[in-house]
Amino acid sequence: MLRVGINGFGTIGKRVADAVRAQPDMTVAGVAKRTPDYEAEIARDRGYSLFAAAETTPFTAAGIDVAGQVRQLVAASDVVVDATPAGVGERNRALYEELETPAIYQGGEDASVAPVSFNARANYDEAVGADAVRVVSCNTTGLSRVLAPLEERYGIEKVRATLVRRGGDPSQTGRGPINDTLPDPVSIPSHHAPDVKTVFPELSIDTMGMKVPATLMHTHAINLTLRATPTAEDVRDLLTAEGRLLVIPERLGIDGAGKLKEYTRDAGRPRGDVWENCIWAESLTVEPLSDGRADCYLFQAIHQEADVVPENVDAIRAIAGLADGPESVERTNEALGIGC
Amino acid sequence: MLRVGINGFGTIGKRVADAVRAQPDMTVAGVAKRTPDYEAEIARDRGYSLFAAAETTPFTAAGIDVAGQVRQLVAASDVVVDATPAGVGERNRALYEELETPAIYQGGEDASVAPVSFNARANYDEAVGADAVRVVSCNTTGLSRVLAPLEERYGIEKVRATLVRRGGDPSQTGRGPINDTLPDPVSIPSHHAPDVKTVFPELSIDTMGMKVPATLMHTHAINLTLRATPTAEDVRDLLTAEGRLLVIPERLGIDGAGKLKEYTRDAGRPRGDVWENCIWAESLTVEPLSDGRADCYLFQAIHQEADVVPENVDAIRAIAGLADGPESVERTNEALGIGC
Amino acid sequence: MLRVGINGFGTIGKRVADAVRAQPDMTVAGVAKRTPDYEAEIARDRGYSLFAAAETTPFTAAGIDVAGQVRQLVAASDVVVDATPAGVGERNRALYEELETPAIYQGGEDASVAPVSFNARANYDEAVGADAVRVVSCNTTGLSRVLAPLEERYGIEKVRATLVRRGGDPSQTGRGPINDTLPDPVSIPSHHAPDVKTVFPELSIDTMGMKVPATLMHTHAINLTLRATPTAEDVRDLLTAEGRLLVIPERLGIDGAGKLKEYTRDAGRPRGDVWENCIWAESLTVEPLSDGRADCYLFQAIHQEADVVPENVDAIRAIAGLADGPESVERTNEALGIGC
Amino acid sequence: MLRVGINGFGTIGKRVADAVRAQPDMTVAGVAKRTPDYEAEIARDRGYSLFAAAETTPFTAAGIDVAGQVRQLVAASDVVVDATPAGVGERNRALYEELETPAIYQGGEDASVAPVSFNARANYDEAVGADAVRVVSCNTTGLSRVLAPLEERYGIEKVRATLVRRGGDPSQTGRGPINDTLPDPVSIPSHHAPDVKTVFPELSIDTMGMKVPATLMHTHAINLTLRATPTAEDVRDLLTAEGRLLVIPERLGIDGAGKLKEYTRDAGRPRGDVWENCIWAESLTVEPLSDGRADCYLFQAIHQEADVVPENVDAIRAIAGLADGPESVERTNEALGIGC
Ligand SMILES: NC(=O)c1ccc[n+]([C@@H]2O[C@H](COP(=O)([O-])OP(=O)(O)OC[C@H]3O[C@@H](n4cnc5c(N)ncnc54)[C@H](O)[C@@H]3O)[C@@H](O)[C@H]2O)c1
Ligand SMILES: NC(=O)c1ccc[n+]([C@@H]2O[C@H](COP(=O)([O-])OP(=O)(O)OC[C@H]3O[C@@H](n4cnc5c(N)ncnc54)[C@H](O)[C@@H]3O)[C@@H](O)[C@H]2O)c1
Ligand SMILES: NC(=O)c1ccc[n+]([C@@H]2O[C@H](COP(=O)([O-])OP(=O)(O)OC[C@H]3O[C@@H](n4cnc5c(N)ncnc54)[C@H](O)[C@@H]3O)[C@@H](O)[C@H]2O)c1
Ligand SMILES: NC(=O)c1ccc[n+]([C@@H]2O[C@H](COP(=O)([O-])OP(=O)(O)OC[C@H]3O[C@@H](n4cnc5c(N)ncnc54)[C@H](O)[C@@H]3O)[C@@H](O)[C@H]2O)c1
Question: Do B154 and B282 fall into the same domain?
């Protein structure tokens, strides 16, 4: 059993911990946190060994036992997943390197934090045996999953995507905007296009970013100029066959993220998490262009809190050499209940 | 095993169905719906017999088998829970009466729909053996639970409550406001005060209603003039002892409904439901007045989709004479995991 | 002086009335309304003759004098602007035709309501002397203004635009969503692309529509494949020269619709109206493609309540033959203070 | 002509500047700012002498002339209005004292910043001839205006008010919450009650604060226990007679802040500002209690950006000894168009 330590037990970290625990071939060595808030309570209820990311005094003052300092957790782990806030991972790097513990970073870090930027569907093999891997951001993960099969099957001449992002997660009450639609960033392409290129170096892609007063999911309006002219049905079949894409049939009457997450909560998923990209079937459109090319369009919703979670699990297997890509993805999907 | 039919499988109905199934002494006879949308999918996945509330054709067209018409469901049930939209219950009443099936209605109906308006903590006994019972609305339920112990222990001279209500449930994308705070209704008292009086006929209470652009929970700012002068600690202890009140300690760092529901989702509750009133411990304040009286204040959050669910289960037991109040409440709490 | 009657005195109608009054060559014959609410108060304060669109009794009951029925207003007008809710204009058409009063309709009507769909910058001449004209919607107007100069100067191979629309106007408290991002419509292209083609029949354009919880402005993320490769500076200069486009310099620190409207309110514009498309200078980007073509990108914000107002004024001049296009546009801009 | 310098040209400062300029007995000596953004543009367009609150280089780099440093502005002013962000006023105090320029501070400062906390209706005389005055916050101003006449006429036994505050101003895109209702502060009374007591030292008042995802106005749900039992009509007449209270008749169909601000924008007010408290006539309710006392209820909306503006003008007159209270208020109201 591979021992996995998780540094940072917030939105991403707590989900990765639960996902690791659900796997047959790995176990949670412990989790590290800074503050004894409701998430510390959850760590305790779940029975995770809790380590102090900084001071232990706040925890003991709150009557919460800690198993030690984060350094001890890293030392006791075969792999560490860093799920601290954006930029903190880079600062933690020296510790992981000093203790020679292979590390998985999140998409809030700069690509330079690790030699490989990772998406299980697109470039699993590059991460096998690496010292460190960065799982790309929620948006880049969402884009990579849909681009990979289309690139392989038809070839992509160019991607133009508008990413309408949620202003903050449901629990981030300090984030706005309250009543505005912000070009964010104003400049084009947004940082997402270069980030996608860390996974698909040859791809021609431009992205436009926006931020809106919603908390549940990001929504992508995507145009792809394909080097072939499939029917919309062909594209639908191709995408439906992908394990981490959910093609939502019109019949379900799901008009946005509210009903989508209602559906997954109703279905009994932990935290109502949507690990898959959700693509509206009705939106899949293909329009022939000259020279056998075609413009393909689609809308997809991305649950920012959840889509990178299975990718972290796969990154752990890749870095530890536990399985090859298809095997790992299948094991992860099965253990979490992805795709059903 | 008591056979319970559920007419209307939306926000309330689907939760009541799952709650009934979780009880040791009752079973779901079936559920009735109008449209073959994602909630029909959920009914099927759960294995509930699905009946058509109106036409069967939309279901068969969508490839969903139905077990029959709602009339057959009512006939096959010992008790029917009507969870159709506000006002529709009244129209369904003739059917339940014709088939002599005792019925539970929801708070969207006028109080005149049934001889008893019900809250398990406050007036369980009145519903025992009744032909029909109305479970009061989410807001009235939330108020009743906190008023009952305070009235019993200290006596309440007057209640003045401001109810800041969510504009719509998370899946109701057609409801607003988007960027406004609406006195709703503008007139005072709002309809909530008379509704509370259907449960506490002698109580002096005024309520002011508002509507805001939020979807997760209602928030109540409550003032109670008590006929005694307890300490804030006394009140806290009294309320903490109540099974359906959660007193939230400051240490957890929960500042609103976002983090509150994050916590219950993290804790693994179905749909992240919060069946209990959530009272901020830090808000509990007592200020002495003349003549031994005192003003008591508190903030509480009410999960509108969930708080009436255990009350429906208790109403079923009361109407069917399965248990007395304390017994029923304990059985319901235990089966659902309320209060832990 | 051309006498202009305005039927419907809501968001659009009240602005058109004020804009007509500000022109040197036309006058407001009167305005028609249905209800004696705050907008009736405004009509009275402005000194507009108020006609009843339906019953007069509600007005007299509220102590507001009416000058007569809408039929009388139409009879007394040289041109009527119909600014009633979407779909009502079509129903009013028989009246205008019977009284032989040329009519201007709004974008909420189907294109078939009038022989010409109008944008002053793009096809003024087509409306000259027509019996009826439809001013295209706020979104189509915003697209037309930016497309016209780019098509003329460089030629446009294809437009791909994502229209992130406000859920409702600031006073429409009944409209949502509260916390969601909705593909709207889910199908692609949205109705906006065909609407643009009523103005540019030859243009290749696809649009994707979305709806978000914001009230101030629509925001467009636009990609244009040009048949030439200008620099971003060239495009900026071209668009800056257009009277109804405002290119917002980065230095002003305007990050969205909130600050944009704050700026125009500060500047003393009536109602803070933004009649022009607002294009973020920093967003203007050109990326060379093969064959001398280039992809051009930009973000623009459209004040849905205001941008069609000057277009209505120009449509009046066109239909009445008062001036040619450039003359009318200049007169309108000068009278309203557009572009400064 | 009294020379008034304004330090800080943001939401409050720019409005105070325009209001000062509109008075017959004072003039704007200049305004000070830190950054050359759109508000600097507005200062220039208005023809205000612009001083640098900190460095001048950003302004010259942006091609905006500055007249000097803030120290020069203060030296050239008979009175300075400090409208810098909360807490900065305290830091500026040494400068004003050194140059012996009487200063007006805003409600974001601690009450200790000045010997007098000011509301024109309640305690004008206390500020006459003072060295420094703090105009109380938007919420305290709104409460003071409605409390003063009720206290004078009937006597107030106790006030219990719930203040449902906007999360941020329309241009503050970084502020939340997006989808939550926050008790803020969680503890009771909120800081508003003590702040009201800086104006009414003897008053018994408790306040509960909340924050919601809206930007336009604060909304207060107020209960007052009066020492008399007027009719609702009496209270309405009393409040209607107050110059800075607008009692909104039901007939206008105004359901919240959106329509309220639409109305004032339509009416042509600068920035659509609502300087008055807006009280819903329909909400005014009186309920008899024992001993001749009565509970009075009302809803009011407060335009946080505007209501303190006339108070600043009056504070200037008080501190400079230009007029007595009633005279100043009348002059201010007349110059701004308040109450019509
Ligand atoms: N939230 C999302 O939507 C999302 C999606 C994809 C990727 N990410 C990325 O995942 C990473 C984590 O984001 P998150 O949203 O989970 O953050 P979070 O704020 O929810 O959680 C961060 C956790 O790290 C802990 N922490 C804070 N400072 C620390 C420090 N100095 N050392 C150790 N632990 C510390 C906190 O106590 C908390 O448990 C970031 O890189 C982020 O960009 C976030
Ligand atoms: N949603 C809440 O927050 C909430 C809280 C407490 C009480 N209530 C009350 O519960 C009741 C149900 O509300 P809800 O929010 O669950 O509604 P909902 O709209 O979510 O669900 C209603 C269900 O009834 C079905 N239905 C619609 N018309 C029907 C008809 N004519 N006959 C039979 N079924 C029909 C729908 O298909 C749907 O399954 C109402 O009285 C409401 O006031 C709602
Ligand atoms: N609001 C926008 O953002 C916007 C933008 C561009 C175009 N439009 C279009 O402009 C038109 C008007 O929209 P609006 O937003 O001004 O609507 P609105 O609801 O604000 O105003 C409509 C007016 O028409 C009156 N009215 C209602 N029914 C009527 C009837 N049967 N006969 C006569 N008058 C009636 C109402 O009293 C009101 O004065 C629609 O076609 C709409 O699609 C609206
Ligand atoms: N915005 C409101 O709703 C509101 C209502 C009532 C009272 N107030 C109070 O008014 C005061 C000003 O608030 P605001 O909303 O106008 O703020 P703001 O941020 O809109 O404006 C502040 C201004 O001060 C300038 N500034 C910033 N730092 C400065 C410094 N160190 N020295 C000099 N100038 C500096 C900024 O450039 C800006 O022009 C605060 O005390 C606030 O609490 C605000």
Answer: yes
